[in-house]
Give the backbone structure.
Amino acid sequence: MQAFHSDAHSLALPPGHSFPASKYRLLRELFEAEPGLLRMEPAPAASEAELCLVHTPEYVNAVLQGQLSAAQQREIGFPWSPSMAARSLHSVGASIAAARAALAEGVAANMAGGTHHAFADRGSGYCVFNDVAVAARLMQQEWSAQAGPGDSWLRVLVIDLDVHQGNGTAAIFEGDDSVFTFSMHGAKNFPARKERSDLDVELPDGCTDEPYLQALDQALEEIWARHAAAGAMPGLAFYLAGADPHEGDRLGRLKLSSAGLLERDRRVLSALCERGIPVALSMAGGYGHDIATTVAVQANTLNEAVRAWAAWRLR
């Protein structure tokens, strides 16, 4: 299975800053030591034109040219620097590459990504550009260019299981029937003002494995029912497999165990594989008191993705 990383483009931050950039490096190093069937590749950079499929040219230019205002940088959560701009480009590029690989092989991953708080005209919550939104739009564009007469538009499903609502993604695709956005998140967690996804499931603080998995099963059934009613299933899914619902997360406020999160991943990936829907994963959030625990959760996700990829090859 192909997995794309952007760690060669490190993000330099002030000492003690809370952004968990190091978890992506640790995750990559873990799989470098024992890659198994995971084929890691450095991520290409997204182009300005690709970013502008989703983001306003003014915002893209401000990021690339270092012209973000102090207020814009505060909303993002870290200061502008050349490495910040470079890493943001490569993080989007990783999701683009993962989406292309998923369409070819069934399952692929961005070993970072999931920057779902970025809106069309601004960044927010440690998210500069919305990698999944850009990758979705580009895949639709490429699909349309290759489609024959009468072929349908590529329908996309976003399954966002980061503990925070994917507000930027929801806002970007609101009213767009070709992209179905599903977010299951903490009701009282960031952002304070939620956007409207096609399906939002809000969870109470302290939610544990059993009610979480029940809510997930019900949501997936609703997703399949809605698509069946519309007469078309998704041709590509993006799965944001956040580690931040974990009980040891500093920001998550939920109480899922590592076993519960692994079962979450199994259910999502199995449901997609059973329906023949290719999936590109992103690691999304994870802010554990012990970063090794966060890395272990996300390593479990990637290993489960490899198993799903192997099952896809046997279909």
